[in-house]
């Protein structure tokens, strides 16, 4: 099993892609710290892992708060004695508005979760991984880390920022046993897209050369590979998983 004897943590693991990643980590043999701001969803993910015979526990954390991220890394060390794998996945969409109309508070809110939250995560995961003999971090970006998207400037800017953050951390820890990568899903069927009217949903699907949006488990496959020792020479990089979206 690719993650046998590993301890992993996943943020935003109470729903969508984060849940799929947590389930795949557990299936791959890891003990999983499932974290989310939403207790109900997080506990449901833990129950799914336990009923499949895996090992997991829930820790509530708001990733936009540095202290919560510190407590989360500590929880992995205290409960499971190590931290080897982290997927910084928690993210929010944000309200639609052009740059000339976007409320400054909305900018701050989206940047706090989608960019600062990932920095805070790595800030405390890295010291824990150094104590654990090394590890692998996967940050959840988007195709919108590479191209613009109208009316979503805070989201697009935060996801672009994750590439620089990932490259820098990848450089800093390449010789110290920690790999850091980022993945870029195109549009994926999760509750994040629940509010879209059917017509907008179809229009989104048509943007992908494959003619469909993706599934959460198709992202989890890539995250699992990057998280495991099978990706032993991969660091500081961005990996799209996008049905051909960025090839256009
Ligand atoms: P989702 O809404 O289904 O799940 C996100 C989870 O994050 C939720 O459980 C939510 O409670 C949690 N969360 C939100 N704010 C949080 C916070 N401050 N602290 C901790 N947890 C918090 O969304 P998803 O589609 O699974 O998205 C997961 C990640 O994938 C996000 O970073 C998103 O930007 C990215 N992504 C999604 C898509 C897509 O089309 N669904 C595409 C590309 C990238």
Low-confidence stretches: none
The H-level CATH homologous superfamily, spelled out, is: NAD(P)-binding Rossmann-like Domain
State which percent range the strand residues make up.
15-25%
Q: What kind of sheet is the major sheet? A: 7 strands, parallel
Shape: globular
Number of strands: 7
Taking the alpha carbons of the first and last residues, their distance comes to 36 Å
Q: Oligomer, anyone?
A: single chain
Work out the helix count: 7
Spatial ordering of strands, largest sheet: 3-2-1-4-5-6-7
And the CATH topology? Rossmann fold
Fraction of residues in H or I helices: 40-55%
Class of secondary structure makeup: alpha/beta
The CATH C-level name is Alpha Beta
Return the CATH architecture.
Answer: 3-Layer(aba) Sandwich
Rg from C-alpha positions? Answer: 17 Å
- Which whole number gives the mean pLDDT? 97
Number of domains: 1
What's the order of the H and E elements? EHEHEHEHEHEHHE
Q: What compounds sit in this structure?
A: nicotinamide-adenine-dinucleotide
């Amino acid at each position: 099993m690719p993650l046998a004897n590993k301890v992993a943590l996943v943020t935003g693991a109470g729903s969508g892609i984060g849940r799929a990643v947590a389930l795949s980590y557990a299936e791959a043999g890891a003990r999983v710290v499932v974290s989310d701001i939403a207790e109900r969803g997080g506990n449901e993910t833990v129950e799914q892992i336990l009923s499949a015979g895996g090992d997991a526990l829930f820790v509530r954390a708001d990733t936009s708060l540095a202290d919560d991220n510190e407590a989360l890394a500590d929880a992995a060390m205290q409960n499971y004695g190590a931290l080897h794998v982290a997927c910084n996945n928690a993210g929010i969409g944000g309200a639609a508005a052009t740059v000339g109309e976007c409320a400054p508070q909305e900018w701050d809110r989206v940047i706090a979760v989608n960019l600062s939250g990932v920095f805070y995560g790595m800030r405390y995961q890295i010291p824990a991984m150094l104590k654990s003999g090394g590890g692998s971090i996967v940050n959840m970006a988007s195709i919108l880390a590479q191209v613009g998207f109208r009316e979503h400037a805070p989201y697009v800017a935060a996801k672009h920022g994750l590439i620089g953050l990932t490259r820098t951390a990848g450089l800093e820890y390449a010789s110290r046993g920690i790999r850091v990568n980022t993945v870029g899903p195109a549009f994926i069927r999760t509750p994040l897209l629940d509010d879209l009217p059917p017509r907008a949903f179809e229009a989104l699907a048509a943007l992908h050369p494959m003619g469909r949006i993706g599934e959460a488990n198709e992202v989890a496959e890539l995250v699992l590979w990057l998280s495991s020792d099978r990706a032993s020479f991969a660091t500081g990089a961005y990996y799209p998983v996008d049905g051909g979206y960025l090839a256009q």
